[in-house]
Amino acid sequence: MLHELVSGHEFWVAIAFIIAIGLVIWKSTGVVTGMLDSRATKIKTELDEARRLRDDAQRMLGEYQRKQRDALKEAEQIVALAKSEAERSAAEAARELEAALQRRQQLALEKIALAETKATSEVRNTAVDVAVAAVRQMLAQQLDQQRKSALIDTAIAELPQLLH
Questions:
Q1: pTM listed for this prediction
Q2: Containing domain of residue 87, as a range?
């Protein structure tokens, strides 16, 4: 039983395939790791940009809040009627500012999510392309013409059995 298994073509093709896959993984690990590191750096840069935008929005909120307090002090010094008008205007400005800040923050979060999705997809596609190319190259280098012909003849002979 063991002798039949070892003497069969399928066994040696399986052994060659396992060795080829092992070599592909071994050779492509550095390349894939480098690509992943570069994607991680790009994502980190985009995240830093999003944080900067958030910090800018918070700074703007602080500035607008300071301006609102100054406007309230001026309104109190003018007249009671002007004071009520200024307070109403300040409340409206705060709502608009809050809405604008929420929109900017939401936009930044959407950009981050899109960048992460895109980066993940690109990394996955690149990893697959690198692995396929490495396997093709290794198979092309390791199989001589006689072995290629033998594999093709074997595949053609087995085709009727596989189609039933």
A1: 0.32
A2: 12-159
